[in-house]
Design goal:
This protein is an alpha+beta fold and 107 residues long. It has one domain: Jelly Rolls. Helices cover 22% and strands 21% of the residues. The strands form 3 sheets. The chain has a two-stranded antiparallel ribbon. The longest helix has 14 residues.
């Protein structure tokens, strides 16, 4: 499973509300939304930008810690996840349409 975005991550983790709060707090401590990022200086940015481009340096830095993909075995037509494991697509920037690619290999 692969996220086609640099500000949306794919992870496997436990779906427990307090743990999800802890994970969010950790990401915020390591790369805060209100931090100072060179990427957010639109007057100095180079390369293509979208008309609605926003200051999202934090989201790119958080993505560095998480990644774009997960490999998940399938057996008998079912995902072979551990008892507590769940697949998450984490939005690190702002809500909008996202694309995820799922590719299945095997015999």
């Amino acid at each position: 499973m692969f996220s086609k975005h640099t500000t949306a991550a794919v992870i496997i983790q436990e779906n427990e509300p307090l743990l999800l709060e802890d994970m969010n707090a950790l990401l915020e401590r390591l790369s805060s939304t209100g931090g100072d990022y060179e990427h957010n200086d639109m007057s100095r940015r180079t390369g293509p930008m979208e008309p609605e481009e926003c200051a999202n340096g934090h989201a790119h830095c958080q993505h560095l810690l998480l990644g774009s993909s997960e490999n998940i075995p399938i057996a008998g037509g079912r995902l072979e996840l551990g008892r507590w494991q769940r697949v998450f697509v984490l939005e690190l920037d702002r809500g909008r349409n996202r694309s995820v690619v799922v590719q299945v290999f095997g015999a």
